[in-house]
Amino acid sequence: MQNFEYYNRTKIIFGKGTEDQVGSETAQYVRRILLHHSGGSAVKSGLLDKVKNSLKKAGVEWVELAGVQPNPRLSRVYEGVELCKKEQIKFVLAVGGGSVIDSAKAIAIGACYDGDVWDFYDRKKTAAQALPVGVVLTIPAAGSESSISSVITNEAGPWKQSVNEECIRPVFAIMNPELTYTLPPYQTACGIADMLAHIMERYFTREPNVELTDELCEGAMRAIIRNARKIFSGGGKDYAARAEIMWAGSIAHNNLLGTGRVGDWASHAIEHELSALFDMAHGAGLAIIFPAWITYNIKENTPRLARFASKVWGVDGAYYDYEQAAREGVFRLKNFFRSIGLPVSFADANLDAGKIGEMSGRAVKFGPLGTYRKLNQDDVAAIYRLAVEAS
Ligand code: NZQ
Ligand code: ZN
Predict the structure, then answer these.
(1) pLDDT band at 316, cuts 50/70/90?
(2) CB-ligand 1 contact for 246 (6 Å cutoff)
(3) Residue of 297, 340, 351, 302 lying closest to 322 (CA atoms)
(4) 98: CA distance to ligand 1 center in Å?
(5) What is the pLDDT of residues 190-202, one digit of tens each?
């Protein structure tokens, strides 16, 4: 196990009705905020009105910036940065999912910087200062509500790039599982794929003697799979299952499960090219890429992949051969994704495989990917090719 420091400042306020606490929580920081949201689902569900009532009650004023799209765009971030500077705003409240939160985080670092906020995403500068960000979460998925990451799309490329710094970790996250009842099944499924991927990125490590986090990862993945099945078989309003999935989304990415180990993260970088070029949901892209990444690595560390198959997917001793067991594990992973309505190949999602050369070059822009196995451009292209046809 490697040396590590674990610190997560995000105060989690979890459960029914908790959105009513947003005013009093925010008032502990400031009396005037940027209220950031998509202008879509949170308005339609009535959540935004509830948030505004709670803010008003607590004496918090706001300037509003709506219009965040999935795969949040840099142009909207620029608008937010300008607003914060002009209006002297010192706090950003995100009401929505990973896209709204990531946009809020980008605004939070841009507001404290005189140059172009894209410098941080393009790795020309390191972000050390940000306005505090608070969150009312509406979709369990990206884990952005308590993560150190923000992923933004610069329309000019289009480039989809991230900042990973402690200063953007939200100060609080309000999580009411009932707010997720209105999610379209496809978005619920994308979120489930993303949280599973966040655990798999950490689980596939070369680090020895990380038994506790290995077992935590396996238990968390089993709980996600079990409760996802409950949501999809039960009409989506099973509070207990929604609550498990919502909490799992945060646990999957607040790095508790990454303590003492080194994560891989190649699949995320490989996926980001799909969501950048085809503007597809990140979770759907991961459902296509992760099984291909595992398949590419089966011969690299077969016992680890056989263990994943056994502990997470229940592949039992009838498989006397590790490789056979590992392949059965990937098969069950793909079947699970399919069963909740996700694509598992380029063909399923109608993606243009003619872009593989371009995407593999872009994916390694900052150098080889991954730590479990270093991947160069040819490896990345091979993984894309493994994902072209459904098998
Ligand atoms: O835009 P609206 O109308 O609000 O609809 C959204 C959107 O269409 C909808 N939605 C959200 N909550 C809803 C709802 N619809 C009905 N009822 C609700 N309660 O769901 C759609 C997707 O929303 P989005 O915020 O894009 O989803 P998600 O949370 O999956 O975020 C995806 C973004 O996060 C990034 C991804 O790359 C992607 O850009 N990631 C961020 C990470 C981080 N900051 O730590 C890590 C992840 O690996 C990921 O890369
Ligand atoms: Zn992700």
Answers:
(1) confident
(2) no
(3) 302
(4) 4
(5) 999 999 999 999 9
Q: Hey, whose CA ends up nearest to atom 43 of ligand 1? A: 144
**Which residue owns the Cα nearest ligand 1 atom 3?**
40
Is the pTM for the entire model greater than 0.85? Answer: yes
Structure tokens at 377: 């451009």
- 137 CA distance to ligand 1 centroid (A)? 10
Domains of the chain: 11-179 (3.40.50.1970), 185-386 (1.20.1090.10)
Helices 185-203, 282-297: inter-axial angle, 10-degree rounding: 40
Residue 230 CA to residue 222 CA, distance in Å, equals 13
Ligand 1 atom closest to 71 (CA): 39
pLDDT digits (tens, 9 = 90+) for 18-41: 999 999 999 999 999 999 999 999
CB atoms within 10 A of CB 144: 31
- Tokens 């069963």 belong to residue: 339
Residue whose CB lies within 8 A of the most ligand 1 atoms, among 99, 120, 174, 257, for a mutation test: 99
